[in-house]
Design brief:
mainly alpha
Length: 303
């Protein structure tokens, strides 16, 4: 039991460089500031109440659909908060603002008759980062306000990233188990994938596929059945990436490419998921190597 406890504690709290979490903070919040900058959420405030079917938390807390002008003001504050989180200024306040306003703005479309699967992960990550020491280094708080912590490795810089990994694993595993519980192996062995591919060629709410190859794949059982099998394999096996670096090289890039394939062949875009994969990259190990190569290249340039 002591060995098991030590492994458990090591998995979550083994000392790690603060720079990895800080770089993830910069890239994550910066990417989503740019991603959502042109998005206007205020239009949801003008949707008829006849379409409003509140999801669980919206119903429990009796959260209303606010007027478009109020939503427009909220989204300005939210986007500004994303930018502040990126530069690492007013950490707790800006991260709390991102979580609360983000839950409302990103959750509002979920209450209009359709649940969207591409951005729910963001709320989980916003919540995890709220309690993480993301601003100890490479932040305006550390430089201007002198609120930075030590730059020495610490377990506080490890658990947030591991928790985000776990969020990925739970989402994909749940998707795979749902397929098995609903359809069993018929999800692979029947014409199910063919029907899905054909259906997505006539999109209603999602963007259409980039190419029309899905029609060709849908007519070839030797293509769509292996495609279904690979999808189920990646979803059910994804949790293995939590514990083994070799499995990470299989399941993380594999699911990344699967979601890219969904965008190309079917249309639904999982861009937030694709961007959030940056938490799987060991930046604190990768950047020194890139710096060495850059300095070596500069030296050769002056020789």
């Amino acid at each position: 039991m002591n060995t098991l406890r030590e492994r458990w504690m090591s998995y979550w709290f083994q000392p790690e460089s603060p720079y990895n979490l800080a770089i993830c903070r910069i890239l994550f919040y910066g990417a989503f500031f740019l991603y959502y900058a042109p998005v206007d959420f205020s239009e949801w405030g003008a949707v008829s109440e006849a379409f409003y079917t509140p999801s669980f938390l919206f119903a429990v807390l009796n959260i209303p659909v606010l007027p478009p002008a109020v939503i427009a003001a909220m989204q300005i504050v939210w986007k500004l908060s994303l930018l502040l989180c990126c530069v690492g200024l007013f950490g707790p306040i800006s991260k709390f603002s991102v979580l609360v306003l983000g839950y409302y703005l990103l959750g509002l479309p979920q209450n209009m008759g359709k649940i969207h699967h591409f951005d729910g992960l963001l709320i989980l990550i916003f919540g995890i980062l709220l309690f993480a020491r993301t601003n100890d280094v490479l932040s305006a708080d550390a430089k201007l306000l002198r609120r930075g912590g030590s730059s020495e490795p610490h377990g506080e810089y490890r658990w947030p990233i591991r928790m985000i990994w776990l969020s990925f694993a739970i989402i994909f595993l749940s998707s795979g188990l749902s397929k098995l519980m609903t359809s069993g192996l018929e999800w692979i062995g029947s014409e199910n994938m063919s029907i899905i591919l054909l259906k997505q060629q006539y999109p209603t709410s999602d963007p259409g596929p980039i190419v029309d190859w899905g029609i060709w794949v849908a007519g070839s059982p030797w293509l769509y059945m292996p495609l279904a099998a690979i999808t189920l394999f990646l979803e059910l096996g994804y949790p293995l990436a939590l514990f083994n670096k070799y499995f990470r090289w299989i399941f993380v890039p594999g699911m990344f490419m699967a979601q890219v394939g969904i965008r190309i062949l079917m249309g639904p875009a999982f861009y937030p998921f694709l961007i959030a994969n940056l938490f799987w990259i060991p930046w604190h190990r990768l950047l020194p190597q890139l710096q060495k190569r850059a300095s070596r290249g500069n030296r050769y340039a002056f020789d």
